[in-house]
Amino acid sequence: MNRPQSEGITLRRAVCPGSFDPITNGHLDIIARASKLYDVVHVAVMINKSKRGLFTVDERMELIREVTAEFGNVEVEAFHGLLVDFCKQRDIPAIVKGLRAVSDFDYELQMAQMNNGLSGVETLFVPTNPTYSFLSSSLVKEVAQWGGDVSHLLPPTVHTALTRRLAEQ
Fold first, then answer.
1. Active-site residue, from 6, 36, 50, 51
2. HEC readout, the chain
3. Is position 49 annotated as part of the catalytic site?
4. How far apart are CA 19 and CA 66, in angstroms?
């Protein structure tokens, strides 16, 4: 795969895909770690027209931009369709995925093998920080809907947005 160049320098690029509805500290940890390994990290926010998210895709992208701004090498975009097509269009050779448990690995391995077979894109599995090993956006939303304190599981701006959105419902 040819890699994009900036002033004669080959840039190492990767993508961190997900729905990020909303982005959690677990997601942010994986993105932060990827940003140390790659020159450019694309955060690909999945558009699933059959699912209605709590936040719109544009809202999710804006929240991600806010909480990743300090890294300086993160680009946030929406995508629908096959992730490998997103990668091909941007000449991205690697997907970075966080793994929380063995059960994640079973599913993610199949996806990684399919993606590699379709396009040659490699998948890098990063073990989740144990602090976030149980964390998912769905769980955060459920706990928050019942009044549980999830402030320690989300970046502050995301927690504020979540609290506001749930109050609107």
1. 51
2. CCCCEECCEECCEEEEEECCCCCCHHHHHHHHHHHHHCCEEEEEEECCCCCCCCCCHHHHHHHHHHHHHHHCCEEEEEECCCHHHHHHHHCCCEEEEEECCHHHHHHHHHHHHHHHHHHCCEEEEEECCHHHCCCCHHHHHHHHHCCCCCHHHCCHHHHHHHHHHHHHC
3. no
4. 16
Cβ within 8 Å of residue 55, ≥6 positions away: 21, 22, 63, 161, 165
Query: Annotated catalytic, 35?
Result: no
Q: Is 100 a catalytic residue?
A: yes
130-139 residue pLDDT tens: 999 999 999 9
pLDDT in tens, 94-113: 999 999 988 889 899 999 99
Give every strand in the sheet of 13-18, ordered side by side.
74-79, 40-46, 13-18, 94-99, 122-127
Q: Which of 100, 133, 151, 165 is catalytic?
A: 100
- Residue 44: CA atoms inside 13 Å, Cβ hemisphere, count? 23
What residue has token string 């500290």?
A: 25
Q: 137 catalytic, yes or no? A: yes
Catalytic residue among 13, 27, 42, 159: 27
Residue 21, beta-bridge partner list: none
